[in-house]
Design a protein that fits this description.
This protein has about 325 residues and is an alpha+beta fold. It has two domains: about 10-160, no CATH class; about 170-325, Heat Shock Protein 90, CATH 3.30.565. The chain has five helices and seven strands, in the order ααβαββαββαββ.
Length: about 325
């Protein structure tokens, strides 16, 4: 009987130790779980807070972007309106000048015609002939300034019209050579004494360039006309000691073709070099230029994805560089 109820103290100690260990582990696990849960809750709240901050920043950025777009649109609109205002003022100013001449000479002629009739009625043929000569001179001036106004309007129509020509593969060397000869013949017709040296340097192997030949031809013609005009002026000032020379060259540069038109004329003064491409700006006398050629050429180059620039030295040379994508 005593053997059945006998308990080994070592077994009790092991059992108690095992139970205590399990209890400690269980408590530790529960504490770790609670700590981990609280930590995750803290991280979750932090993430939620960051998400809310990001959403708030996103809303602010979208609002700022919308305001920036609105401001940009307003600036573009204001710039367009300012440009339109400047252009309108330029047109009004340029047309007003020849119009004033036309009106003034017309008024003078009306008075002269009355005087002419009085002299004819009085039988003074000599005075009547003198008055008729004055009327004739005034009529020529009216015609001159009327044609200038007409040229301004036509130039503006060229600026505003939409290009209807189609791009086509074009031999740029042949095109440049054709318009060089065309411009030279036109100036020889105006001035029989013009005897300029024409130089060409066309790079072979450029291939055909996809462009609108009529538009690029107009651009080249404007540049060449300016070149011949300036060498004529320099010839008039320097006489036989000066040899007018106009050079046209082409060259393939990377994925572009470069057309260079150079003259040894008057050059461009530094003070006006930044105005050359402005509409209506011209250094030519009244009636000899509308100031639209270079502006129109700039637009043509831009439409073709190209550029136009120039180098110059006053009294020595000017060269215009047209670059068009191949």
């Amino acid at each position: 009987m005593n053997n059945l109820l006998q308990i080994n103290p070592g077994d009790v100690a092991v059992s108690l130790f095992t139970g205590l260990t399990v209890l400690i582990l269980l408590v530790g696990f529960i504490m770790y779980f609670l700590f981990s849960y609280r930590h995750k809750q803290k991280d979750y709240k932090l993430l939620q807070s960051q998400k809310e901050e990001i959403d708030s920043q996103k809303i602010l950025l979208e609002k700022a972007l919308d305001e920036l777009k609105a401001t940009q649109s307003q600036l573009i609109y204001r710039e367009k309106m300012a440009s339109l205002g400047d252009l309108t003022a330029g047109i009004a100013h340029e047309i007003q000048n020849p119009l004033n001449f036309v009106n003034n000479f017309s008024d003078v002629n009306a008075e002269l015609i009355e005087e002419l009739q009085e002299e004819l009625n009085a039988g003074d043929i000599t005075e009547a002939l003198a008055i008729s000569n004055d009327i004739k001179e005034n009529e020529q001036k009216i015609n001159l300034h009327g044609k200038r106004a007409d040229a301004i309007v036509k130039g503006m129509l060229q600026h505003s019209r939409t290009t209807t020509g189609q791009k086509e593969p074009t031999d740029i060397n042949a095109l440049a050579d054709e318009y060089l000869k065309l411009s030279y013949r036109a100036y020889c017709t105006k001035d029989k004494s013009l005897n300029a040296t024409l130089l060409t340097d066309f790079e072979e192997g450029i291939g055909k360039v996809n462009l609108i030949p009529q538009e690029i031809g107009r651009l080249l013609l404007n540049l060449l006309n300016n070149a011949f005009y300036t060498v004529i002026e320099k010839k008039r000032l320097n006489g036989d000691a000066y040899e007018p020379t106009v050079t046209v060259s082409t060259k393939k540069v990377n994925n572009h073709v470069r057309i260079l038109i150079r003259d040894n004329g008057m050059g461009v003064p530094q003070k006006i070099s930044d105005k050359l491409f402005q509409p209506f700006f011209t250094t030519k006398p009244t009636g000899q230029g509308t100031g639209l050629g270079l502006s129109l050429g700039y637009d043509i180059a831009k439409v073709h994805g190209g550029t136009i620039s120039f180098n110059t030295e006053e009294g020595v040379y000017t060269e215009f560089i047209v670059e068009l994508p191949l």
